[in-house]
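protien #1 (seq + structre)
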Amino acid sequence: MQRFAWPLFAAAIILAVALILSTESQLPAVVATHFGPGGRADGFIPHDRYVALIVGLAAGMPLALAAVMAWLPRVAPKLFKLDRCKRWADPKARPAILASTATFGVLEGALVAAFVAGVHFTLIASHESVPPRLDKAVFIPILVAFVVLTLAACFVHTRATRRA
């Protein structure tokens, strides 16, 4: 799985950003970005700011997550107090644990990119009605899928690091 993680990560970010940029024209000049009770829009930002924000989130959050998970434990293990954990302190197990942690961060980053793109498509669907209304039938499955896949990734990562 580790050798497929980085290409999948790059593809997820590129695809999310491409999909967002290819569909942003479907949104109005002022975009509803927050929804209150009953799905009514109660927060708005200008279109250009929305595009910059959503593209920044789709690319920036996964990159930051991957960097923290793949790079930081290697260069600053004391920051995380990893030397206090038996498994991390074992010199034989440490390379496998670092590799598994990096893979987890990269795959979770890909999930975040997909989730941000899903939120964007939810906003497009919300703007099909006037005034904009959050379509829970679109948003809830995206949110549940993200949470379930994140929990599954956490479970797999925990099992992998225990075996290392």
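ok now protien #2
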Amino acid sequence: MPTRSHPKPSDLRRAAGLPHINPLVLVSRTDPFDNPDWLFEPKYDGFRGILYTSSLGCEIRSRRDFQFDRFGDLCNRIAGVLGQREAILDGEIVALNRQGKPVFRDLIRGQGFIAFAAFDLLWLDGTDLRSQPLAERKRLLGDLLPEDTGPLYKILTLEEHGRALFSAIKKMDLEGIVAKRKADPYTPATQWSKIKNPGYSQGEGRGDLFRSRDRSRRRTEASD
């Protein structure tokens, strides 16, 4: 696959003429449910990100539209997978352990295998897909990523059976599941529901983890 020889612009999205994306908000729900009109996905514990890629390179932005500069190596590896394709994906930056399970503490510390877990495709080669139903966007995402790669893969999707998936993620000690209507477009009026796993072990001490990271950052800044 040919490599890009020109330098990546500081604002790739603007340089490539790609639209700004406001990520859909997850609304909390208490109990899992079954419904043939819905899709269900595991909720991976990571950093939500919008991935922009074009012939100019790749960048990932946070929910508040800040660039994730610390994940430059991940962006370079994703650019190597997608080549010249122009795309916008919604997903999670995760740190995977040897069993392929997301570990949030490793992500904070920059450890583990860093990857982007995609769950939606919003733009592809000049076509805005946000008005398309979720089921169609999922189909196109599967066409774009027919096989999972190291730095970029699709999140598992299950139709109708939310309770079964929730039971499985509890056994796997994952964060929870997300429920989405098949027919919904990607617009501000669309709501996705998150159902958290009450026994999720990595949720314990989350505040202490962030405080520890902030203390380490201040010590580093003080020593510069």
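Helices lie at 12-16, 72-82, 104-109, 134-144, 162-172, 206-223.
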